[in-house]
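User: Once you have settled down, look closely at the record that follows, taking as long as you need, and be ready to discuss the fold:
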Amino acid sequence: MKRKITVSIAAAMLVCSMMQNYVQAEETAEYQATFTNYDQVNEAITIIEGTDTQKELGYLNGVTTILEADGLQFKDLNGNGTLDVYEDWRADVEERVWDLISQMTIEEKSGLFYHVNTCGDPTGVDFADERYMFHTEIPFDVPGEGEEVSGPMTGGSYSMWYYVNELGITTYLDNTNGTPTEQIVYHNAMQALGEDTRLGIPILISNDRQYNAWGGMIDTAHDAFGAANDPELAQKLWTQYSLESRAAGIHVVLHPYGQELGSWNGEDPEYAGTMGKLEIEAIQVEGGTEACAKHFIARGGDSAFSGARSDAQTVDNWMTAWSIALESNPKWLMTNGYSTGLTNTVHVDYDEPTMQYLRETLGYEGIIVSDWGAQGADNSSGVTYDGINLDELTIPERYAFTINLGLDQIGSPGSAYDVENPGFNSDRGAVQEAYEQGLITEERLNETCYRVLKDRFELGLFENPYSDAEYALSLAASEEYIAEPWEITDLETLNAARNPEVVELERQLQAESAILIKNEENLLPLEKGTKVYSGSTASEITLEGYKEVLPEFAEVVEDMESADVVIADCTQINDAAELLIDDAKALGKKLVVVANCVDPNTYLIENGDAVLALTFSRPADHGTGAGGFITTTEPIMLARLLFGDAEPSGMVVKEIARDETMDENQWKDLAGDQGANQWVRMMLLATMKTSENNTTPNNWGDPLLQYQYGMRYGEEPEFVYDTLVLPRVTKEVTTEENGSTRTSSESVVEVKAGEAFEIYTLLWNNGADGMTTVEAKDGDEVIAEKIMAVTGGSWRVVEMTITLDTPGEHTITVGDLTKTVNVVE
């Protein structure tokens, strides 16, 4: 049975609007392509429905002929009137791939080595202007007369028709904004361009945004998943995001990178790797989109791999995280082309030991793509470990060098032929030149062609590359929006348009990823009806959201003096935030500090009576996001958290330092060492190297907040002080007994007046996670304080520095422990 693919009324209205807005371009262009607008594509797309014996086929009526064999139907993609093996969906994938490769020219094969942004524009393309899709007169001026026209490597005036037909590139990173319906219009048009080529090779579409069904409005709240530590909830959302993205015509999401140490899953290699593995499985196995794990070895965390390397030069812990994640077999992997690899010499793509480790030691067999621009002239520099100077290589030689090490695709914003220096972009002719110069063998060329094409066969793109808006909306949208779509302008209209079950799951994540850091006298949750004054450094749209929802929970007052509690929502620690906090403290008000996607640092913890850290943030990754949307914790969810209708249950995934100096001194390639001295670091290093999955204890250092810390409403810590240690000196003591003199050594607690010294105690927490301020007293006088946060059922060593100026005996008290020290001149 044949049917036309579904495009909703909204899509039809969109096409009409586009045609009206850009009619002038239609009048002036001389098209040579089969299609000149989206209406024509939609009219041509025809679906042969699948049955138990027949594969579903999606094809262009009038472009592709349908062949019949044995009572079954097939697409004649190359138009030769014969059923080729690669067109026969009954054949083994392996046979289909090699049959197609055998029919390809060197130019077509080399095109598979390039992965570029749509129209060469990394900021995203306004495909509502049909010229960006179909225009054949290249370049075209956008938007006005007389303006300088940019080249194909910088986007702007080079269409998808040009990229597909003139450059022969079939793999595109598309960070387009829009609803699922709008994106399907664009993605189906791209597939039509691919089907209309000599061999009908389908277009593969990737996306920087893990969740782009509602393009540019919201994305995935990456950090929140690590903080929530709820794999079941995470997998539900990751799966749904993948399903929606795939339905919108996206095949590969360039994620995750939570397996990078120091990224959103923290520094524990076992946790980071396990969460990465679960995320890849959810994306690929359940969701149907393919995952691209990145950036091998690391770039997106606290520091790139090369920047993180300390005296220890650790490798095992990084690779443990990757090894665990790769157990889920991500179909794609992106390298970190902006950081050196294992040899500390050149960038990863050119570092043979690093690429060998990936392909051979870790056994990765999928498609490897470089990070965008990594093969540009500015990045392809330096001398390899075996003495090859990359600066002396031509562009074809550079491409051949890294391709021979295992790279499959060169990621770049745009591409062009015959360019002297592509810079951040790619040279479209360089792979072919490298082959023709004998720098790449035919076997190596075909190896990448095999990987890239096999992937598309397995995705089913050769049978039906087209997406159905009705199906996409059934996954992503509410019944009300499906029945009568509306313009989406803000979070309220977006939430109403989306699948309500997904919205509720995300709100659950917002609560579970919130971390209760401090809660003196159980200030939180606040009683409903409390007089509150709310101040924030958030955007205007977020402030408007607070004004709408807070009156449902509290009596909101206009001046701070009238409030019983001040709420300080800090999206950044700037002068405005500090003024708000200082004013509340000056008035003696109870203060709730909300660390909204900022680290809950020492200043916030010292001043807040309660501190709640929010980790939920989901702005569009890369490209240009749509404006007007709240992308952090929703105002309604913050109110629910503050007033007890929802409970925070998140945990700290990366240690938080007490100050900048401590953070600078941390070894970024070793977990658990914030505030540790070198002796402890070496102990941590030895433990990491010998423990299962290279984990380290979370309580040996001296951070402000330790890994896995997070309080709960109504749960109390139970602190116990154990063993007070003060400095000792050894003195000789002479005694006389029975007429003889005896000299012995004696250890005494003694310090010099005016000189700083350290005292130590062991702080046990036999209750729930909690925080206390440890005080050291000289008699009744408090002479030192230190904030200590301790996970339940654990312990931490408290180190404090004090100075005593007056000679004589002093009684030092910490908690319920007391010891006398003698102060001498």
In short: The two ends are 100 Å apart (CA to CA).
